[in-house]
Amino acid sequence: MSRLELRKAGLQQRVLPTYRIPFVETFAKACPSGLSVFTGQPQSGEMITRVVQLQGARLVNTTNYHFRDPASKFYLCWQTGILKWLNEWQPDILIVEANPRYLSTRQAIRWMHQRQRPVIGWGLGAPTLVGMLAPLRKAQRRSFIHSLDALIAYSQRGKQEYENLGIDPERIFVAPNATALKPTNPPKERPLSYQAKPNVLFIGRLQARKKIDNLLYACAQLPETLQPHVVIIGEGPARQSWEILAQAIYPNAEFTGARHGAELDPYFEQADLFVLPGTGGLAVQQAMAYGLPVIAAQGDGTQDDLVHLATEQREGNGWIVPPDDIPALTDALQAALSDVPDLRRKGQESYRIVESEANVEQMADVFVEAIQTITGNARYHRIKD
Q1: Of the residues 158, 183, 204, 257, which has the fewest C-beta atoms closer than 10 A?
Q2: 12 forms bridges with which residues in the sheet?
Q3: Which CATH number applies to 199-356: 3.40.50.2000, 3.40.630.30, 1.10.357.140, 3.40.1160.10?
Q4: 96 with 147: CB under 8 angstroms?
Q5: What are residue 349's phi and psi, to 5 degrees?
Q6: CATH 1.10.10.10, domain 9-178+359-375, yes or no
Q7: How far is CA 9 from CA 4, 95, 181, 228, 370, in A?
Q8: Total-model pTM
Q9: Interacting residues of 222 by C-beta distance below 8 A, sequence separation 6+
Q10: Segment 194-251, tens digit of pLDDT
């Protein structure tokens, strides 16, 4: 990885989840004079396990004041003490979440620009806004995005959405949304037949948008010989209702509760297929690192960059299905589970993608590239309309 010729770097996050530790600690190695991370606490219902310690980076905790639920389109957040942190740390480059709903971030951007120091936004993209207040929200988002000096998107779709706002494509970078380091061990050798039932795995927060109910209905519609053992790992407000549903229509589903770190290893190793029936998908890349093929519903674009259908140019590693389409999910499950050799080939391709295209190290390298591009200009330029 390249190293930066900067004195200090700062990273702002509303909440720093534990799954971001590999990325932050890897990125910190590229900042020889220091990385400071400014972050707050989640709301209790978010079920986010936050970082309490970092190796090689300075962790600064603050208080988040939340207005409404983060899932609400009217959510707002204020982080206390952000100017105090900047004054004490004096970063030469600042990376912030590209989210205009975090009101204190505007203060940080102004502080940096007053000192002729660049700010990079890191975000999902700029998906379509709907509703009566959509024009006002669009204007606020556009103003915020154009106050940044560069953007790092999670996916190619996110990059295109930023371009649609009028941002110079040369100031937009795409970093794979990775949670797993480049694998160092070869992928697990899985047999070409199931020992009993196939094992399907899901990992994530158990909230309505994850659509575990769709997965249960789809599995129930499979031929009995293909109906898998489904392991659902995670906690959240929808768990109880989904457990009741599983008892009624698909009792061969196991809810384990939350698991983290090394606790997940045996579940990945025993699985035959990873399924993401709803939105989200940070665990997809981690599952691929274990050589698992993936079925994912179309979502925010990160799935499209990780899960590929087979073409003449490349081997596929899974299936992308329309959101909220139970028949399509059922068909994908049946295609996956009925051809074990093909399933194993797709798993090998998943491993190859994580090994060579989408891992934490490459994610950090994109951050370094973005910083070097912005700070390497002879003159300091802001993104403008």
Answers
A1: 257
A2: 38
A3: 3.40.50.2000
A4: no
A5: -70, -35
A6: no
A7: 9, 8, 22, 47, 13
A8: 0.88
A9: 228, 330, 333, 334, 337
A10: 988 999 999 998 989 999 999 999 999 999 999 999 999 999 899 999 999 999 999 9
